[in-house]
Design a protein that fits this description.
The protein has about 220 residues and is α/β, with parallel strands linked by helices. It has 9 helices and 8 strands. An 8-stranded mixed sheet has the order 3-2-1-4-5-6-7-8, with helices on both faces. Helix 8 links the parallel strand 7 and strand 8. The mean pLDDT is about 100. Bound molecules: NADP nicotinamide-adenine-dinucleotide phosphate (NAP). The site of NADP nicotinamide-adenine-dinucleotide phosphate (NAP) has 27 residues, from helix 1.
């Protein structure tokens, strides 16, 4: 499958490694330009491109940049993607350490992914946001393995969500349907499921135990 990855840091880099290993045709971009991604391209066989080119022909586009950088993404970012493409959003809002205060999230109560959707102009599927980047490399397990971890996946577009869940299964993880993007506060930072390394039952339980109140440490 053709996959575009926008952001080549902890998460984007490791997704590039695993998805190329599985035989996918991966294009990867960062903010500084493809010439700064030659080492990752050589290591993995991915194609280093500009952010504006990453989505071309892609069935799945992964947006994995710090939240504060989402507004810097180029206009037309998703132009030329394949028919029916899905966008994965791995983002988290860290107002104090990294992103600064975002009023639409804090005052208007938008979930982090709803805010991102509005910036990029396309629905997203929220996945990997509570997954340790290293686990993408170290913890894949075959289906049915009792040690297999489960990841919550939220999104409004059922077909796109299914496409993303199938890809995550191929990567070696179970998934739990965490509802729509308005429900995705259940998997935001500091919720019980965030960073939880457990299987389907525990992830389902943790999602149900989340509180919609934004924790004090995650307010700008
Ligand atoms: N680290 C984790 O374990 C983890 C786990 C789950 C979720 N997340 C979330 O996933 C997102 C990415 O995290 P990360 O740790 O992978 O970030 P990171 O290591 O800081 O990497 C960020 C990447 O985004 C790129 N980028 C920034 N602005 C861009 C732009 N305008 N256009 C294209 N690329 C741009 C950066 O490129 P340059 O280097 O060229 O600037 C870099 O490759 C964050 O929201 C984070 O909270 C992280």
């Amino acid at each position: 499958m053709k996959i575009g990855i926008i952001g080549a840091g902890n998460i984007g880099g490791n997704l590039t490694r695993r998805l190329t290993a599985l035989g996918h045709d991966v294009s990867v971009a960062n903010s500084r330009g493809p010439e700064t991604l030659t080492a990752l391209a050589q290591e993995t066989g991915a194609t280093a491109v500009t952010a504006a080119e990453a989505a071309r022909g892609a069935e799945i586009v992964v947006v994995t940049v710090p939240l504060k950088n989402v507004p810097d993404l180029p206009a037309g970012l998703l132009d030329g993607a394949a028919e029916g493409f899905a966008v994965i959003d791995t983002g988290n809002y860290y107002p104090r350490e990294r992103d600064g205060r975002i009023d639409a999230i804090e005052d208007d109560g938008l979930t982090e992914s709803r805010w991102t959707e509005r910036r990029i102009g396309h629905p997203v599927i929220k996945a990997f946001n509570g997954t340790y980047a290293q686990d993408i490399l170290d913890r894949p397990r075959p289906a049915g393995d009792p040690e297999r971890l489960a990841l919550p996946v939220a999104g409004d577009d059922a077909a796109a969500k299914e496409k993303v869940r199938l890809l995550i299964d191929e990567l070696g993880f179970d998934t739990v349907d965490a509802g729509g993007i308005d429900d995705s506060w259940r998997q935001q930072p500091d919720t019980p499921v965030y960073g939880l390394r457990e299987g389907v039952d525990a992830v389902t339980k943790a999602l149900s135990e989340a509180s919609p109140e934004r924790p004090e440490g995650f307010r700008g």
